[in-house]
Amino acid sequence: MSEEIAKPPAAASKFAEISSQFKGLDTRNPASWPLYPQLLLYVAVTVAVIVVGWIFVLNSASESLQSSFSKEEDLKKTYVDKYSQAVNLQTLEEQRKQVQRYVTQLEKQLPNKAEMDSLLSDINQAGLGRGLQFELFKPGAIVAKQYYAELPIDVRVTGRYHDIGQFASDIASLSRIVTLNNIALSPTKDGSLSLNTTIKTFRYLDPDEAKNKKSQK
How far apart are the first and last CA of the chain? Predict the structure, then answer.
């Protein structure tokens, strides 16, 4: 009998053919490669480009998402603040009105420039009405503040302890804002007391004074 020569399967033959194309490739000249190595190279390059592009897209999307989260938190905080203000709007409005009434009340206690002479006379009469003797009544230089003027008055009166106390009480009861500062009591030779103090009162700045004060800033 004649011996039959075994033929390799077609698939194995094809694999061997493909494998042989990957042998001895010139890495410097891919254009000269056989078909299958070129196809594999194209696929690898395409996949690499897609992967790299996808990574960049993901990074960009991640940064954009993070920025959106931050904006969302800011918007939530702004919303909560606005909502709280809206809920408390009526209460805040009432508080504003109360403050305005208080400010108006204080403003009424500040004389204007034309009323200062009358106020100084009231201070003087408060001492004379208690039987005190004025040894010194010297208005000082006016000190202009931002919205008002301050007038210091150096005062020295003598009299009985009870009368001096009543004088201080009368000063505190004046309709205008008047304060006693740097109070010093000392006995006199005749047994009475001497009160040295700086009385400070306050008044509105006239429009021209307020304008000059602003221009000096």
Answer: 126
Residues 137 and 62 in one domain: no
CB 148 within 8 A of CB 202: yes
| pTM flag (> 0.70) | no
User: Pick from 55, 87, 119: which residue ends a domain?
Assistant: 87
For 185, the domain range is 111-215
Domain co-membership, 137 together with 206? yes
For the ranges 51-65, 113-127, 159-173, the maximum mean pLDDT occurs at 159-173
Cα-based angle 67, 71, 77 (whole degrees, multiple of 5): 150
Alpha carbon distance 125, 112 (integer Å): 20
Whole-angstrom distance, CA of residue 49 vs CA of residue 44: 9
Strands 148-159 and 178-187 come out as: unpaired
Does 1 map to a domain? no
Q: CB-based burial of residue 202 (10 Å sphere; 0-12 exposed, 13-18 middle, 19+ buried)? A: buried
Residue 72 shares a structural domain with residue 120: no
Q: Positive or negative CA dihedral for 29, 35, 36, 40? A: positive
Q: What is the pLDDT of residues 63-90, one digit of tens each?
A: 777 777 778 788 888 888 887 777 777 7
Q: With 60 as the cut, is the pLDDT of residue 3 above it? A: no
